[in-house]
What we know:
Elements: E1 15-18, E2 24-25, E3 38-41, E4 49-50, E5 63-66, E6 72-73, E7 86-89, H1 97-102, H2 113-120, E8 134-138, H3 140-149, H4 152-161, E9 168-170, E10 176-184, E11 190-192, H5 198-232, H6 252-262
Parallel strand pairs: 1-3, 2-4, 4-6, 5-7, 7-8
Antiparallel strand pairs: 8-10, 9-10, 10-11
Amino acid sequence: VIGGNAFLKCTALQQVSIPPSVTELGRQSFMGCSNLTNVQVAHEGALQVIGEYAFRTCTALKQVSIPPSVTRLGGGTFMGCSNLTEVTLLGKGYLSKGFLDRGLLSGEAALNNTRINHLFGPVLRAFRSCPLTSIKISISRELSQCMARLPEECRRSVEERIPGMHHLDLARDGNIFACFPVIRSPLGEMDVIDTNDQTAASLHRLLRLISFHELKESSILTELAMWKSRIDEAATPVPPEKRSEYRVSIPDPAKCLIMEYCGFTDFLEPPFEGD
């Protein structure tokens, strides 16, 4: 634990790296460090709680990243950070499960506001008096299993399209982020709102694109397996030049079952032989 007031008004401090073993930053631990520009927290560290006013009036801070381990920010944690415009969330659960499963067809909002409010408090009270404009959420963990199943060529194809999707960002290290704008009320209260579902629409498009490549690869593998089984079951060896005659198409009912099994039903429709 880094205790309360540990570095209070330490104006000489410009960078800080929180060790992986630290579980809590105490109240006002870095408050008033007006020249602090960079706070690094271990991605796989043990930090869970960032106390009240821990970074209050750290006016040189422009962006911060909240690691997956953090479960709570105290009131006014970044209050008065007059140059802080961007916050990045690196954990899971900030997007709603229903949306990840079915996209816009689920009828659910993309953002899990319950999780956001639990972390930051109502009306983003951890960021009072900050010019915060957006919150970036890493979605790489949610998509990691889907992306890992794709061949390298398909992954590159997906990644190449991300820069053209509104409110999505692809970092140099391959991480994918969804950006949600911060809206202010006339009273100055802040909230994270996906205006006109713009971010949700881009996420839905990305999920459809990944599903398309998954389905394409699944169909190819299934047809190859059926084709090979016909060759293997032949009474006499099939010469290479005649093997194309043994290729069989997948029956329409089987295509539907494959779609349902792979979870693509709500995103894509298979091409039927009669189309």
